[in-house]
Amino acid sequence: MFVEVLLIVFMALAAVFILMLLRAAYMPTKQIASKKAPEPMEFDLDAASEKLAASLRFRTVSGAGFDEEAEAEFLKLHEHLRKSYPNVFLKSEVTVHGGRSLLLRLFGKDKTLKPVIFMGHMDVVPVEASSTDRWLKPAFGGTVEEGFIWGRGALDCKHVVSGLLEAMETLLVSGYEPVRGIYLAFGHDEETGGANGAAAIGTFLEAEGTKAWMVLDEGGKVDCPGHITGRPLEAVVSIVEKGFASFRLDVDIPGGHSARPPKENAISVLIKAADRVNNHVFTPRLKGPLADLLGFAGTEMGFWKRLAIANMWIAKPFVVGWLGSSPSTDCLMRTTAVTTILKAGMKDNVIPSHAEAIVNTRPAFGETPESVRCELERAICDKRVKITASGHQHTPSNASSVDCDQFRLLQEAIARHFEDPVVIPGILTGGTDTKHYANLSDAVYRFIPIKLAHELAEGVHGINERIPVDEYGRMIAFYMDFMREATR
Ligand SMILES: [Zn+2]
How far is the CA of 187 from the centre of ligand 1 (A)? Predict the structure, then answer.
């Protein structure tokens, strides 16, 4: 009898495993091959690189409040762009928003078609004074040397601004007339939230009743090797952006003399709360954009991960364990929360009566700042800790579709311009200016057509920011090709 039961259990397990194998084997690939080579289009890469390098010399640093020096630098950058790409400025309607942001609108031949909006930003993050001696070339020198274009903004993201303008200039010189309109929208305060730049452009377009066929901004790139699949080239097109919400924790408990400390005080209660926040694990959200991501990645992965992704009905814990094994993948599936500021005390022999902390969270798709606040309250579970919202808060963006012409067009263009890439719909954990364009289109994607090794990507907001000249050439060729395909 016992042997029979064992045999039945074994056969049932074998049947389940065979079913899992079949599901993995027949999991449909979402990757598409390049149908054709891009139409060749000549442009002068040396001259284009010099123009980008020159734009890096303007210190268009994003900071808090109005800054006269930065203002003048922005105006000089505008003038440089106007001179460098004369046809774009001549043939487009140019408007300035929020004082320094630019919107260039090249209207299409068919006015009934919705335009494509290409976004970028002209501001850059500051260079830390303590780091200047570690830059191999001056941060605001803007030079082309050793096969790279060097300077703050080369990767975030004046290369996008100049690359788009270069592509459009070349197309216009060749006599190209788009059927669908092409809008270029360049913000000036993305690094501080975009409240005056992109927000002003977004409000302006919304008030006009503009709806865009598609919006393309920074926020994804081609990683080599890939973070998710480990494949040599992984193109991440972000389809959603996580939210942003900071909270302030306040604890008020009467203090006193440090020679007679009570069991608990404001600091000890706050530290316990901060620790609970840091160790709190939010529920994984495997549906929606993460399901899209896994659907595209699954067929490109090794045997066990492919088996698990194809069989989420039984292998969900394995997938959650795998994603959770690294902070860079864990943050894709759930809300994160971490204490970033602590303040308390003013004298070594006084127990303070007040202690406060700031917790920064990134709400996952499907959550809101308020739902996160409630969860933090439950996690801290201490009425003495008051939790209130701090600073600007954003709910996660809508998730754009991966099953539409816009996404397919991007996927095809990526396949044409990169060697055997895997395309993955990404979840952006940082923020972009697209949050101000949410009402303009259902198809909002974040992708820069550039292949970046990890050590070069560290230049973003870091030191020795530089872009390889040939990658900049690839970006321009990609933008020309994609502009034509999306607007013909
Ligand atoms: Zn940026």
Answer: 10
